[in-house]
Please model this.
Amino acid sequence: DLDDMKSSACNGPNSCSSESDILIECSTTQDDSSSSSSSTGSPKAPHGLRLPLVPEDSTDACLKSNPLLCSEAIEALKNKVDTYSCDEIQVSASPIIYVHQREVAHASTEQYESKGAILTSDNATTCHVLAFRSCVQGENNSKALGSLCHLDTTRNGSCILKIINEHMIFHRCGMDRSNPKEKQVLMDVHIVGGYNDKDKTSEEITNHVFDILSKAAREFNSMLIMTLKTCVVTSLNDVGRYNYPSASGPMARGLLLDVSSGQVNLLTSVNKNHKGPASTLRRVRLWAPPSQNDYLLVVHMWDKEEICIEPFQFEPFPDMDLFLQLPDNTLLEYSSTSPECEADDFCDEMRETVKYMRDVPMESVFGRESKVVTYALKKLSSPHNCDNSSGSC
Model:
């Protein structure tokens, strides 16, 4: 029972060190309407989250000992949705844009007949899902930009900075840093993912993400105010922290951001019908050469109403049929960083992905000239479940 955990799970000081750097503000209110998505300005009752410049402990250790973050993580988990589908959460009639592993999507409130979009992702065990929503202080809140990414490595720091910079470009801020009247961007940040895995992969990603956010806060300084609205990562997301001391695994595995309203929900999973277009092809990208998959692929932009998949190489690999015949427990050990807590359909999806690589020639997807594949999102309120190799949905 998460209600019983506040006293036991939220012990600890407000910071890890007296010599610390203000990394990012944490709003003390649960009302998203009073966050940086407000048209009037700064969030109410901000609480400065301080992390040591040279931490003796990891960033995760600092986060889990912060009473405010711990309390808000519990509140967010209480409202977690087990399986998201169109009827599960009351959100605007906007297209659902699913973000796969190592992808990022941007969408604005000016798109899709001014209905914006719903950005979502799931299946994060050691991975982290980050969502950003921004507007300009003093301007109408109807013009906002949302972004969501799903990262699985500590090598995506430049990609996170590019996401933040995309928000500055969208709002046309930061063009003249010498101008004292330059507009200021207010940005909400939501992060979920990871758990106390034995290899500490989650902890490394958490440390990496907050290091990058700290650098961004300093780089953009007076032009950008970041408010950490949701922080359910690693220790704060581990089932062993919430009355399950003998277990380990993530409490929440995904996130949903309604760009129009700013509404955010933690998720366990997303209905398979919402994971298109081309969900299998997009999972195949994880098998591409490192130069083609070791970054966050932008699949949707704020100036185009379509999903774009850049060409990448894939081909059958040796002993593929033997790989497909492996029992589930062996397949998990070979293909997952967290075999003890993957979703029930992990092995089925893995075999589906490998069969695609075996049976579908790369040229039949991207053509001989290796062209970008695009899918136009035409229907605003219906789920998109296109899994073909070309065309539109």
Q: What stands out?
A: The CA atoms of residues 125 and 194 lie 5 Å apart.
